[in-house]
Design brief:
Shape: globular
Distance between the termini: 29 Å
Oligomer: single chain
Strand order of the largest sheet: 3-2-1-4-5-6-7
Helix content: 40-55%
Order of helices and strands: EHEHEHEHEHEHHE
């Protein structure tokens, strides 16, 4: 799948799987607009991408705190100042909160977890929808989690994280139905815990990927590229995975 022309926005791309997505999209030729909570974190990934030989004019870094509506609006406005449309929005931002005891998290932790995952996803999608609607092939990809599936109870994540992921699942479900008539595909991924190997390391190609191994970031990236690479009559709404 060639990605020479698509313009891609990725939230929370300063580390972990967001960084992986940014590196892999850029590696396929996409123009990448990546955000992180701090500009320094986003710029580190931007510089890593440029060091791989990517055109400096096709990778951009921004600061965006997804819990702050003004910051989300400013992020979208800054992207709009550089391009007249966006082809893919990847909602990757969501704070993880560990702990199986409801009382283990502070009120501030609960608010931040819900705000970054649930509110942040809605705000980012709303802010970038005008740019997506100007694309000939718009896609919205949201990294939800197995924690967003009804009845899931196998994670050690805090209840606030479960709540945030359930909110994302409900949002993307109705969004998919309502945006289809406008040609926007809404694609959600519900992975369990997975191994996120560094795309710039030898482990990326050497990672074991048999039926007995944990899910890898490589396979998740493959799912994203597969879904957005389908002809426009193919609306893949979600990917669900067995947990080893």
């Amino acid at each position: 799948m060639a990605l020479e022309h698509p313009r891609v926005v990725i939230t929370a791309a300063g580390r972990d799987f967001g960084r992986t997505l940014a590196l892999r999209f850029a590696g396929r030729g996409a123009e990448v607009h990546l955000s992180a909570r701090t500009l320094e974190a986003a710029e580190r990934v931007r510089d890593e991408i440029r060091a791989q030989g990517h055109d400096a004019d096709r990778v951009h870094a921004y600061a965006c705190d997804l819990t702050d509506p003004a910051a989300v609006r400013e992020f979208a406005a800054a992207v709009a100042a550089r391009t007249d449309h966006v082809d893919v929005l990847v909602n990757n931002g969501s704070r993880y909160q560990h702990g199986t005891d409801l009382l283990s998290a502070s009120d501030e932790d609960v608010v931040d977890t819900l705000a970054s995952g649930a509110t942040g996803t809605v705000l980012a999608t709303k802010a970038f929808l005008p740019l997506l609607l100007k694309s000939a092939e718009p896609d919205i990809v949201t990294m939800v989690s197995g924690c967003g599936e009804a009845g899931h109870d196998r994670s050690d994540a805090h209840e606030a994280f479960y709540a945030a992921k359930s909110a994302q699942a409900g949002f993307t479900e109705i969004l998919s139905r309502r945006l289809r008539a406008r040609g926007v595909r809404v694609i959600s991924l519900y992975p369990p815990d997975f191994d996120n190997h560094d795309p710039l390391s030898e482990a990326w190609e050497a990672a074991p990927r048999t039926a007995k191994d944990p899910l890898t970031a490589q396979s998740l990236v493959d799912c994203v590229f597969f879904a957005i690479g389908r002809p426009r009559d193919c609306f893949i709404k979600s990917f669900h995975f067995e947990q080893v």
